[in-house]
Amino acid sequence: MATITLQGKKIHTAGDLPAVGSTAPDFRLVAGDFSDRSLKALMRRADRLGATYVLLVGDDELSGGAANLRHMGTKEQVAITIDNFVENIKRQIGASDDS
Known about the structure:
Helix content is 30%, strand content 23%. By secondary structure, the chain is of the alpha+beta class. The chain has a domain at 37-99: Anticodon-binding domain (Rossmann fold).
């Protein structure tokens, strides 16, 4: 179990995180934006960057222990729990790619 901090809030993971400097398999951070820009502006930026998926984590999601994974092409959005979030994201992306 590890503890990470996102926007000043501590999140406890269910498993261990990769070592510092190692690359997480199958994922690449295209852009992270913690500014005060509107969600609409951030989604337009993600679209311009060619992102297939966007992980949305706001204050409401953090307090509820969840995040939203949005497919930019279909606009489908699903809630995923922060516990085991890497596995949850892989499962959702795999399910979407199978359809």
